[in-house]
């Protein structure tokens, strides 16, 4: 099976390609080689490479940046997704598209299932939700994976940011009123394999097991690394970021387990494995 991956040099792509390349014929495509809004480029690349599956990792993911440039966010996250769906439909290619927990408003007390009604609070969440809707309208057989709080080997992420601040200042303030599931990007590879090989379609939630706040996540990082930095819990109101975040964005992944038998390891275990690699 041949898999073409857009945005392959991003955080998720860099972490899943090593595993997927041992199972499939993987063709990476970085952003500078393929702007997903360029339909003619998409037609040319897909027509030439003739993949069985296209995994779309290209997106505008700067949540606060999307508030500053909403038009660009919608063009990339919604219009770009629609272009890929149209190209895949024309060439009979399976599309697997990545989305986000930010399609939800965080008002639910328990984990969000795929059947729960989205209600995004930010431009980022709204643009990603529209991308989901446009894809499934154009290509009902597509796969949508919602995931969250991604970190991994290489590239900037929450862990690299808090480590940098802690190393420079000896003290870092982290919000303690937003809850989610930290997810090691490399752990997404096996469920992707399971969904592709079993010819699934529709929306699936995939994260590492368990949940925590951003503060608890940072505290666990410092504990594993035995860093002496002070980690201070603060409220979202104290941080005052441009985009509003959901208070609870935990994703219920029981559909994945029920239909594929795949369950991702606890987030603490995945974090330990990741930090052992990068330290």
Briefly say what this structure is.
The chain has 279 residues and is an alpha/beta fold. It has helices at residues 11-20, 39-49, 63-68, 70-91, 123-138, 158-169, 189-197, 214-225, 236-239, 254-260, 267-278, and strands spanning 2-6, 25-29, 53-56, 94-100, 143-147, 150-151, 171-175, 179-180, 183-184, 202-205, 212-213, 230-234.
Please provide a written account of the structure.
There is one protein chain. By secondary structure, the protein is of the alpha/beta class. The protein has a domain at 2-152 and 184-209 and 250-265: NAD(P)-binding Rossmann-like Domain (Rossmann fold, 3-Layer(aba) Sandwich). The protein is 43% helix and 17% strand. It contains 11 helices and 12 strands. The strands form 4 sheets. It has a 6-stranded parallel beta sheet with strand order 2-1-3-4-5-10, with helices on both faces. Helix 1 (11-20) links the parallel strand 1 and strand 2 (25-29). Helix 4 packs parallel to helix 5 (123-138) and helix 8 packs across helix 11. The longest helix has 22 residues, at 70-91. The protein is globular. 45% of the residues are buried. The mean pLDDT is 94.
What keywords describe this structure?
Rossmann fold; alpha/beta; two-stranded parallel sheet
Largest sheet: 6 strands, parallel
> Helical percent range?
40-55%
- Sequence of secondary-structure elements: EHEHEHHEHEEHEEEHEEHEHHH
Number-wise, the strands total 12
Which geometry do the CA atoms define? globular
| N-C termini distance | 35 Å
Per CATH, the class of the domain at 2-152 and 184-209 and 250-265 reads Alpha Beta
How do the strands line up in the largest sheet? 2-1-3-4-5-10
What is the CATH architecture descriptor of the domain at 2-152 and 184-209 and 250-265?
3-Layer(aba) Sandwich
Q: Residue ranges: pLDDT <50 for 5 or more in a row?
A: none
- Give the averaged pLDDT, no decimals: 94
- Supply the number of helical segments: 11
- As a percent range, the share of strand residues is 15-25%
Write down the Rg.
18 Å
CATH topology of the domain at 2-152 and 184-209 and 250-265: Rossmann fold
Structural class: alpha/beta
């Amino acid at each position: 099976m041949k898999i073409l991956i857009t945005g392959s040099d991003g955080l998720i792509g860099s972490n899943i390609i090593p595993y997927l390349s041992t199972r499939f014929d993987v063709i990476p495509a970085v952003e500078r080689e393929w702007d997903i809004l360029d339909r003619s480029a998409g037609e040319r690349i897909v027509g030439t490479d003739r993949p069985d599956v296209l995994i779309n990792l290209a997106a505008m993911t700067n949540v606060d940046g999307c508030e500053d440039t909403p038009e660009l966010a919608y063009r990339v996250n919604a219009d770009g997704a629609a272009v890929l769906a149209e190209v895949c439909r024309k060439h009979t290619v399976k599309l697997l598209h990545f989305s986000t927990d930010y399609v939800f408003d965080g008002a639910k007390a328990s984990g969000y299932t795929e059947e729960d009604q989205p209600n995004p609070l930010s431009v980022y969440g709204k643009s990603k939700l529209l991308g989901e809707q446009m894809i499934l309208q154009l290509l009902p057989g597509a796969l949508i994976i919602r995931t969250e709080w991604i970190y991994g080997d290489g590239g900037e992420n929450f862990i690299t940011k808090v480590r940098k601040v802690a190393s420079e200042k000896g003290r870092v303030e982290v919000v303690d009123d937003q809850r989610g599931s930290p997810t090691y990007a490399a752990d997404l590879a096996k469920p992707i394999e399971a969904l592709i090989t079993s010819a699934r379609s529709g929306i699936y939630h995939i994260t590492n097991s368990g949940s925590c706040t951003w503060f608890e996540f940072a505290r666990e990082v410092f504990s594993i690394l035995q860093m002496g930095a002070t980690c201070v819990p603060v409220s979202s109101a104290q941080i005052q970021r441009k985009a509003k975040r959901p208070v609870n964005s935990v994703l219920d992944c029981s559909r994945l387990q029920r239909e594929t038998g795949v369950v991702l390891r606890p987030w603490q275990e995945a974090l330990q494995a990741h930090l052992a690699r990068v330290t």
